[in-house]
Amino acid sequence: MAGGFVDGDLGKRAAQYEGGVTAYFILACAVGSLGGSLFGYDLGVSGGVTSMDDFLKHFFPKVYERKQAHLNETDYCKYDNQVLTLFTSSLYFAGLLSTFGASYVTRKYGRRISIMTGAVSFFLGGGVNAAAVNMFMLILGRILLGIGIGFGNQAVPLYLSEISPPKIRGRVNQLFQLTTCLGIIVADIINYFTEKLHPWGWRLSLGLATVPATLMFVGGIFLPETPNSLVEQGRLEEARIILEKVRGTKKVDAEFEDLKDASEAARKVKHPFRNLLKPKNRPQLIIGALGIPAFQQLSGMNSILFYSPVIFQSLGFGSGASLYSSIITSSMLVLGALVSMSLVDRLGRRFFFIEAGVQMIICMAIVATVLATSFGHGVELPKGLALLLVISICLFVVAYGWAWGPLGWLVPSEIFPLETRSAGQSLVVCVNLFFTAAIAQCFLASLCHLRWGVFVLFASLIVIMSLFIFFLLPETKQVPIEEMSQLWRKHWFWKNIVCQDDDDDDK
User: Fold this and answer.
1) Cystine design at 356: which of 31, 399, 431, 494 (Cβ 3.0–4.6 Å)?
2) Which residues make Cβ contacts (< 8 Å) with residue 440, sequence separation at least 6?
C-alpha cells in the first residue's frame, strides 16, 4: 500500500494487518488484470499479421514481392522494411507519450478511470485497423491502440499492487503478465486460422482487439477503486468501506492509518516527477523507472514475440508452420508466468531474475552458434537444427516468462512510495514503451545487417542486466510497501545515497 516513510510505527502497524482473500478481492483482480490482455493481444497479433500475404499485398507490396522472390531461400533480410516496422512500433511511440496524460488521470481521478479510458481507446483503435483501406487509417488505428496501452499499462500494475495483501502481492501483480501471455497465445491461435481466410483474414485478426477492450470497459464499471487512490482523493469513508470489503474484515485500522499517513505525505509533494530526483528516491528511479523497464526490452524477448512468425519464416519454415511455431513459443510464455505466480513469493524476485538470466544467455548463445555455422547460405536449415532453434527459443521464452516478463512490472510497482507512485509508474511505462518501440523499429534491420550477431548482442545485454540485478536490487518478497524504504537504508550501495536526505533535514 503506502510507502516511503521512516517512522518506526510503520513496521508495528504492518505486523497488525488483518484480512485475507475474499470473493470481492478476486473479482477486482480478475477484472483489473484484463488490462494485460490488451497488451498481449497486440504483441501477438502484430507479428502474425505482418507475415500474412494478403496484408502485405494490400499495404506493403514491395515486401510481398521480395518475400515471393525468396520462397525457396532462407534470407535474413526478407522483411527489412522500415515502414512495415513502423506499423508495429507506432503503437508504442503513442503509448509512451500517452502515459504522461495517464499519470495525471490516475493520480487525480483514480486507477479505475485510467483503466476504462485505456479500454475505450483500444476499442477504437481495433475498429479503425480492421476497417483500414490506406496507410493513414492503419497508423491512426495503431496510435489509438497505443494510447489505450499507455493508460492500461500505467494503471493496471498499480491497481493490482495496491489492492493486494503484502504476502501475495507478487502473485497477484503477476496476473498482469499472465493475461498478457494469454492475450499473446490467443492472438497467435487466431492468426493461425485467419491466415487461411483470404483476402480478409488479417482484418478479423486486427478487429478482434475490440473484444478484450470491451470486456475491460464493462468490467471496469463494476471495478472498485483502490483504497489508496480513494484516500489520496480525500474520500476516506468510501476508502475504508472498500478496504473492509477487499480484506473481508472490519479490523483494518492499522492498514487504514498507514494509508492516511501515506496520503498526507503525498499531498505535500506538489511536483511528483521532480520529487523522483531526490536522493531518497534514487534507488526507485534507477532500478524501477529506468533500469528494469529498459532491460526488459533489451533482453530481445519482445523482438521474438513481435516477429516470431517472421523469424521462423525467414529461417525456412513455411507460413503456416511459422505461425504454428509462434503458438508453441507463446505457450511457453504462459507456462513461465504460471510458474512465477506459484513460486515468486516463496523463492523471491532475485532468484528468478538471476536464474533466468543464466538460462537466457545459454539459449541465445545456442541460437547464435547454429545460425553462424549453418544458416544464411541460400539453403534451408536441416530439420534437426531447426528443431534445436525452436527448443532454444522456447527455453529462452519460458525463462523470460517467469522472470523479466512479470517481474519487470511487479518490482517497479511495489517499490515506489505513494507520493511518487503514479509519476514513477508513468516513467516506467514510458521507458518500457520507448525501448519496445526502438527494438521493434530496429530489429528486422539489425537481423538483416548483423545476422546471427544480433543474438550475440542480446546475450551480452542479458549478462549486463543480470549483474545489475545481482548488485543493486535487494529482495522485496513479502515486504509491505510501507516498509520498502527500509530496504534501501540497509543496502550496501543505496544506504549512502538515500541517507543524504536525512543529513540535509538535520542541518
Assistant:
1) 399
2) 85, 88, 89, 92, 302, 303, 306
Decide: residue 299, CB within 10 A, 0-12 exposed, 13-18 middle, 19+ buried: buried
Q: How far apart are CA 213 and CA 209, in angstroms?
A: 7
- Domain boundaries along the sequence of the chain: 17-506
Report the alpha-carbon distance of residue 98 to residue 60 in Å, rounded: 28
pLDDT score, position 4: 34
Q: Give CA–CA dist 333/463, Å, rounded.
A: 21
Calpha distance 157→179 (Å, rounded): 12
Cβ distance 332 to 400 under 8 Å? no
| pLDDT average per 10 residues of sequence, the chain (507 residues) | 38 60 81 80 80 86 74 56 74 84 86 92 94 92 91 84 79 82 86 88 93 88 86 88 86 83 73 82 92 91 65 60 71 89 89 96 90 67 77 91 89 82 82 82 75 87 95 88 82 87 54
Q: How many angstroms separate the CA atoms of 228 and 252, rounded? A: 13
The rounded distance, in Å, linking the Cα atoms of 185 and 168 is 26
Q: What is the DSSP string of 317-335?
A: --HHHHHHHHHHHHHHHHH
For residue 440, the model assigns a pLDDT of 73
Of 233, 226, 220, which is closest to residue 108 (Cα–Cα)?
Answer: 233
Give which of 393, 388, 395 is closest to 370, Cα–Cα: 388
Fold held by 17-506: Growth Hormone; Chain: A; (1.20.1250)
- Decide: helix, strand or coil at residue 198: coil
Record the cell numbers describing residue 498, joined without a space.
538515500
| Amino acid letter for position 127 | G
* Amino acid residing at 489: R
User: Residue 484 and residue 411: Cα distance in Å, rounded?
Assistant: 11
pLDDT at 322: 62
> Taking a C-beta distance cutoff of 8 angstroms, is the pair 296, 303 a contact?
no
User: Identity (one letter) of the amino acid at 126?
Assistant: G
Q: How far is CA 66 from the centre of its chain?
A: 33
Phi, psi of 19 (to 5 degrees): 105, 165
d(CA 482, CA 372) in angstroms, rounded, equals 50
Residue 40: count other Cβ atoms within 10 Å of its Cβ: 27
207 vs 57: CA distance, rounded Å: 19
pLDDT at 133: 92
Please tell me what DSSP assigns to residue 71: T
- Whether 36 and 429 have beta carbons less than 8 Å apart is answered as no
Distance CA 117, CA 127 (A): 16
Among residues 129, 136, 92, the alpha carbon closest in space to that of 213 is found at 129
Q: Which three cell numbers stand for residue 386?
A: 531447426
The amino acid at 104: Y
Contact status, residue 425 vs residue 114, Cβ threshold 8 Å: no
Residue 2's pLDDT is what? 35
